[in-house]
Amino acid sequence: EWLRQSKAPMWMRFLIIVVFTTVWKILYYTPRTHKELRLSRARQAGESVPEMTRLGAWSLFTKQGRALWFQSILPYVGFRFVLLPLLFLPLGTFAATSVLINSILAEILTNMHTFLVIVPNHAGDDVMMFEEKGKGRGEFYLRQILGSVNYPTGSDANDFFYGWLNYQVEHHLWPDLSLKQYQYVQPKVVEVCKKHGIPYCQQSVFKRLLKAMDIMVGRTSMLKPQVA
Q: Which element (helix H / strand E) includes 136?
């Protein structure tokens, strides 16, 4: 939201997003998965977890922040970008440097690929965003369709490169289905949506990326349900 409200020129906002895509797993997923781990452990122990600001979650001056750094981030960085290159040092500095560079490039490309296939699945000026809790099972299913987007589907080769995240609508309807079952039910979901006049969004991942970026920079906004 801060980027949408930023006074920075539009080109700089887009540049910030591009940079963010290269490290988004650490900046976005790491603190959130660590938070869920803390919540799960606290629930099992019957303890309450105090609310934590985003800055506090990263701070070395908080218990949660130190745990994030010393249990998640530093071990990963140390293994991938320090220990692994050092193992090749007996072969020479060129070998060790090559491993380091390749590890960094692999990390960047993996971040960009996962950003590409994950983030646009629920963003765009044609995708509904719900802020209030739904009522009933029927509304639940409707919201999953109106709030999700699919990419091209059909073949194993195609689906492999998307990590089967191109079946986002079906995934939210039935989270426990197998990957093969997504291929089977997807055409049936399309038929049901056509029959009842429900919008079923399926587009190229690159078109969806542009729509998602427009949302992030504040050029467009998500759809919201009209309250009668």
A: helix 136-146
Q: Say what percent of the chain tops pLDDT 70.
A: 98
Tokens linked to 221: 């906004």
Q: Which residues pair with 202 in a beta bridge?
A: 150
- C-beta atoms surrounding 182 within 10 Å: 22
Provide the CA 49 distance to its chain's centre, in angstroms. 24
* Average pLDDT across the chain, whole number: 92
Q: Please indicate whether residue 210 or residue 61 has the higher confidence score (pLDDT).
A: 210
Place of tokens 């745990």: 67
Predicted structure pTM score? 0.86
- 150 beta partners: 202
As a whole number, mean pLDDT of residues 1-20 equals: 93
SS3 letters for 51-97? CCCHHHHHCCCCHHHHHHHHHHHHHHHHHHHHHHHHHCHHHCHHHHH
Strand partners, 223: 128
Q: Secondary structure of the chain: what % helix, strand, coil (to 5)?
A: 70, 0, 30
Q: Please write the tens of the pLDDT for every residue from 185-209.
A: 999 999 999 999 999 999 999 999 9
Residue 15: Cβ within 10 Å count: 12
Cα distance between residue 7 and residue 1, in whole Å: 12
Q: How far apart are CA 183 and CA 187, in angstroms?
A: 8
